[in-house]
Amino acid sequence: MSHLKTNHYMIYSTLQKNIKQASSPRNIVSSTTSTKEGSECSPRKPCQPSIFEAIEKQGTLPSSNKRAKEITDAITHFLAKDSVPFNAVERPGFKRLLRVLEPRYEVPAKLTFSRERVVKLYDATRKRVLGELKDSVDFFAATTDMWSSHGMTPYIGFTLHLIDDEWNLKNRCLGTKYVPEDHTAEELGSCLDDILTYWGLDQQR
Q1: Domain range for 101
Q2: Which of 123, 140, 172, 174 could form a disulfide with 162 if both were Cys (CB 3.0 to 4.6 A apart)?
């Protein structure tokens, strides 16, 4: 450097000026950012996508996917447990909720739930309750209730009450039956007999 300063002052002066500019804090940050961006977005090493971009690029989950099955089962349980109308799955707010929770999930049509999913859930639940009644019910009590829908359609509900082998009180709603005829003792008795027969229960118990 001393040789340049003594014999080539103009070159020395220019070099010193460049060194000062390169060592300033502003240029260090700029250089670091540029180098970092260059290293991450070079042709050999493309920019790494964000988590959301990576998820979107994966596309829609197939219906056979484990995650998709879990969500569909949860929606089915939600519809049945809370008596929610089937068309709720096609409402904008519900779809937006699912897009936030799982962008890759595509909500099945309402007919899929009404004709397939809820039917399968009912069959599985009935099978489980039948096994429970067969294994642990020696005696039971039952209550019934007559009620009408908002459209004044009459129904009778039947609830079974039992104590299992571990002395746990359990209640199982075994049926809600449409009663189109006159609500006479004979007609109501016939409805209750139908429910007991359907569940394989002996009224003498």
Answers
A1: 62-123
A2: 140
